[in-house]
Write a structure and sequence with these properties.
By secondary structure, the protein is of the alpha+beta class. Helices cover about 25% and strands about 30% of the residues. It is built from eight helices and ten strands. The strands form three sheets. It has a six-stranded antiparallel sheet. A two-stranded antiparallel sheet has the order 1-2. A two-stranded parallel ribbon has the order 3-10. The protein is elongated and about 70 Å long. The termini are far apart.
Length: about 250
């Protein structure tokens, strides 16, 4: 959309037309998260409208999470956010369509480890050997999570050999090992990213990182899965959907 596409007689408000024009500009120029869009003066010239109209369009696009204005630097395309259901028993990415969301998982490393102080707080003393699975989760806009999963080998014997980039851990647990999930406990906090996390996620030390710790319980309230998700703060949003009861 350009100035020739602006219709002053249209029932659609002028700033709404400019919003559509900026969205089209982002799409046709294949701009990605972090790419800069033209400044106010350039947009005024492109669409032949006033700064007031441009500022209204930019303000609303910012509120919609499509762009962000950084003072002294300009206006940039903003990374889309992934929805995280706080009450979901599944993994963060299990409820997302890999095809529709271009979700990719890459195993950074997997190893068999012994119980440590952190794992001892979660699992029973009988569970002493675990697979530690560390995966990078990304979409077309880049990485948004590093996931650490801990799977007790007495619950999932032989699972180490079955894990690769294309395997859904939760599907494997359900279909191969037939372990039912009965309850989930989650803790959420903001943390400072380590140097390692910064490297994996392509962020810096001042970036916001959200840590979600999750314990999944099986029969008899026995912990059967423990995970920690480190997520880029501006790439995810949380929501809760539950039936209302008195």
């Amino acid at each position: 959309m350009n100035r020739d596409s602006i219709n002053l007689d249209s029932p659609i408000l002028l700033y709404e037309q400019i919003k559509a024009g900026i969205k089209e500009l982002i799409k046709t120029n294949n701009l990605k998260a972090g790419d800069k869009i033209p400044n106010e003066s350039e947009l005024c010239e492109r669409f032949d409208v006033s700064r007031i109209t441009i500022r209204r369009a930019i303000k609303e696009l910012g509120e919609e999470g499509i762009i962000e204005v950084i003072r002294g630097k300009g206006t940039f395309v903003r990374a889309s956010k992934k929805d995280l259901h706080l009450l979901n028993l599944k993994g963060f990415t299990e409820g997302l369509s890999t095809e529709e969301n271009n979700i990719e998982k890459e195993i950074l490393h997997k190893q068999i480890i012994s119980s440590d102080a952190d794992l001892s707080k979660v699992f029973s003393h009988e569970q002493t050997k675990f697979v530690e699975l560390v995966r990078l989760v990304k979409d077309a806009e880049g990485p948004f999570s590093v996931d650490y999963a801990y799977l007790p080998l007495d619950v999932y014997p032989g699972i180490y050999e079955l894990l690769d980039d294309s395997v859904s851990t939760f599907k494997l647990i359900r279909e191969k090992f037939k372990v039912p999930f009965t309850k989930v406990k989650k803790e959420i906090e903001y943390v400072h990213p380590t140097t390692e996390l910064c490297g994996h996620l392509g962020i810096n030390k001042t970036s916001t990182v959200i840590l979600v710790k999750k314990i999944i319980f099986g029969p008899n309230e026995m912990p059967v899965h423990y995970s920690k998700y480190y997520m880029v703060g501006d790439r995810v949003k949380f929501y809760i959907e539950a039936d209302y009861t008195e």
